[in-house]
């Protein structure tokens, strides 16, 4: 994470908050290891966190600074947080780095282990082995609310609230976020977490806003000096009005809005709006001012382009947006985006600068005008149509002109095609109304380009993801179009095709046609739709007529598999073998999640009801309990005088 472009608080502002944080960090008597600073969108949490990180970097106490952004994939994935934290801690102190390297050598599969195990092996245990000279080491996590969805960060919140308490007292964790329900519920009951709400209504905060506006106006005045705004522009009275209207928020966004072609005119526009008292109302007033246009062409382009930016699952470049929406060359998306510089980041990918603007556009009561409101479900309908249209035009057999001997690492697809292939089913799954037009497009796409899509997903190195995607597709069809029997049959065949052939398809895209299709059961809708004997190979006499009830083949053990168990929630499979290992597998994709090397032949495997622990019977006459997440032995039971061939766990 490169923090070099992040801006902190203006000099001599937020001094009261910064002093409080420094005092809290250096109070070694306190057993509260975590400080949670929360506040509204636009209250300056990110600038504050950057200043906090810089302060402790200067004092030699900063161990790590992680900042999250829901619009940047690599900065919004909860599963990478512990690894990134360990990396930064390791680079901040060579002793920590050495212990972490040793931990990785001992646990080569640690990066794909559950977060709890990653934390124990990469952070807790290495830090616990070191005697620190510094009184405190500071870790800063900014914008936790932007780290995935509530469901996606559930495991991370569990680690933060239940495992971080075991860290040495020398560690101090500072987290900033909005007070989202899941974060509040996780943090507020914990006595060892100090919750602090940013006060945006205090006189000191108003003074800081005054200072910030004065600083920005001097910059704008110098930048636009050819307009001759005057040496004291805009004057103390105007500063006071701006401070009152800000209500503690939107100062950065307002400053960017004023810094336009004619700053004086833009300032008048802000000040001429209705005065507002609430913080959220102040933001809404600014956004309504920035969008004050009745020009029909602008409104039309705005709705299509901004809707795509809001609902895209990853940020898209302007070129990708143009291609996905098939915008005319004389009206590219940048023609509209450039008019909204105070609201949108324009490069390298286009995204909303502040989450409060997205909230404004997707809340009908706040927009005030229907032309600015985005019904997310309706716009998913629009986006899935655009994705299907682009794939219909581009996808074909061997679309990259590959050979079986080609180096696949250099193969890629255009941005709009990559996005369409990866996310069209996600957009489809959100569609709830106006179903028939979608079904017609879906029927056409699956009957012409299903195998081409498998090829494309292999080029994108996402073959395993097709399994869960197609399961959702089948669910959507059964919910919204259950009478489409042929469409349903093709979707179910595609799901079986993905599960059975994903390992070979991910090895090379062309194996979709060379290996997978010929071995597809001959009476299936997929085979009858796609297999042409004059083009594709055939199995003499036919391979089989229907899909085998066997869904997955799991390979990896080097000796007989002696026992298999499935977790109570059905998400994982555990297998024991005479080769002295236990392996845990994802039951949907067949991917190996964990390998536990025991050294003795395994006679029996069984999950605890909580799915976290596994009880094992061994050839050395013992029964042992392992924590599957931490991959550590927690209990050994002796007494048998022969190999244990069967174990069982009571429901309680």
TrEMBL record:
Transmembrane segment boundaries: none
Output the InterPro entries linked to this UniProt entry.
NPHP3-like_N (IPR056884), P-loop_NTPase (IPR027417), Quinoprotein_ADH-like_sf (IPR011047), WD40/YVTN_repeat-like_dom_sf (IPR015943), WD40_rpt (IPR001680)
User: Per the record's keyword annotation, is Repeat included, yes or no?
Assistant: yes
> Which PANTHER family does the entry mention?
AMELOGENIN (PTHR10039), FUNGAL STAND N-TERMINAL GOODBYE DOMAIN-CONTAINING PROTEIN-RELATED (PTHR10039:SF17)
Matches recorded under SMART domains: WD40 (SM00320)
Q: Where are the WD repeats?
A: 554-595, 602-627
Tell me the domain of life.
Eukaryota
Q: What is this protein called?
A: Nephrocystin 3-like N-terminal domain-containing protein
Record keywords: Repeat included? yes
User: Pfam families in the record, alphabetically?
Assistant: NPHP3_N, WD40
């Amino acid at each position: 994470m490169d923090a070099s472009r992040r801006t902190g608080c203006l000099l001599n502002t937020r001094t009261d908050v910064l002093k409080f944080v420094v005092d809290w960090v250096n109070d070694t008597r306190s057993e509260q290891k975590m400080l949670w600073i929360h506040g509204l969108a636009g209250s300056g949490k990110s600038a504050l966190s950057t200043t906090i990180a810089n302060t402790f970097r200067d004092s030699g106490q900063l161990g790590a600074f992680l900042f999250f952004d829901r619009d940047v994939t690599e900065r919004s994935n909860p599963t990478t947080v512990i690894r990134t934290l360990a990396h930064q801690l390791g680079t901040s102190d060579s002793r920590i780095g050495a212990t972490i390297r040793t931990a990785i050598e001992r646990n080569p599969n640690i990066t794909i282990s559950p977060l709890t195990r990653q934390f124990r092996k990469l952070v807790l245990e290495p830090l616990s082995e070191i005697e620190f000279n510094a009184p405190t080491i500071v870790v800063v996590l900014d914008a936790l609310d932007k780290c995935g969805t509530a469901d996606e960060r559930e495991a991370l919140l569990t680690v933060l609230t239940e495992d971080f308490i075991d860290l040495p007292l020398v560690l101090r964790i500072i987290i900033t976020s909005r007070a989202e329900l899941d974060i509040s519920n996780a943090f507020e009951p914990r006595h060892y977490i100090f919750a602090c709400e940013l006060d945006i209504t205090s006189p000191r905060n108003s003074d800081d806003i005054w200072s910030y506006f004065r600083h920005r106006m001097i910059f704008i005045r110098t930048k636009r000096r050819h307009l001759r705004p005057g040496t004291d522009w805009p004057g103390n009275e105007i500063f006071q009005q701006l401070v009152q209207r800000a209500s503690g928020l939107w100062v950065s966004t307002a400053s960017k809005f004023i810094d336009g072609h004619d700053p004086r005119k833009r300032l008048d526009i802000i000040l001429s709006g209705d005065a507002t008292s609430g913080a959220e109302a102040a933001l809404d007033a600014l956004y309504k001012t920035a969008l004050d246009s009745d020009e029909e062409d602008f409104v039309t382009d705005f709705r299509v382009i901004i809707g795509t930016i809001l609902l895209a699952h990853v940020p898209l470049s302007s070129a990708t947006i143009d291609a996905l929406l098939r915008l005319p060359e004389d009206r590219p998306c940048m023609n509209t985006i450039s008019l909204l510089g105070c609201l949108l980041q324009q490069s390298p990918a286009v995204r909303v600068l502040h989450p409060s603007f997205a909230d404004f556009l997707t809340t009908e009561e706040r927009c005030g005008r229907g032309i600015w409101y985005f019904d997310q479900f309706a716009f998913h309908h629009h986006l899935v149509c655009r994705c299907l249209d682009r794939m219909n035009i581009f996808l074909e057999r061997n679309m990259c002109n590959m050979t079986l001997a080609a180096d696949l690492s250099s193969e890629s697809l255009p941005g709009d095609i990559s996005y369409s292939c990866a996310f069209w089913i996600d957009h489809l799954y959100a569609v709830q109304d106006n179903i028939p037009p979608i079904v017609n497009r879906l029927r056409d796409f699956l009957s012409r380009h299903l195998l081409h899509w498998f090829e494309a997903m292999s080029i994108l190195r996402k073959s395993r993801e097709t399994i869960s995607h197609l399961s959702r597709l089948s669910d959507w069809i059964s919910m919204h179009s259950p009478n489409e029997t042929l469409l349903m049959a093709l979707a179910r065949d595609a799901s079986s095709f993905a599960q059975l052939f994903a390992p070979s398809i991910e090895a090379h895209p062309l194996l979709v046609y060379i290996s997978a299709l010929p071995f597809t059961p001959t009476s299936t809708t997929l085979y009858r739709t796609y297999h042409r004997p004059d083009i594709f190979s055939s199995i003499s006499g036919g391979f089989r007529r229907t899909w085998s009830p066997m869904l997955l083949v799991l390979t990896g053990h080097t000796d007989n598999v002696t026992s298999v168990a499935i977790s109570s929630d059905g998400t994982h499979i555990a297998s024991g073998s005479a080769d002295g290992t236990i392996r845990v597998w994802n039951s949907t994709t067949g991917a190996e999640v964990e390998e536990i090397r025991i050294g003795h032949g395994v006679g029996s495997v069984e999950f605890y009801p909580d799915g976290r622990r596994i009880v094992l019977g061994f050839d050395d006459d013992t029964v042992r309990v392992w924590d599957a997440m931490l991959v550590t032995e927690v209990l050994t039971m002796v007494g048998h005088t022969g190999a244990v061939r069967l174990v069982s766990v009571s429901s309680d």
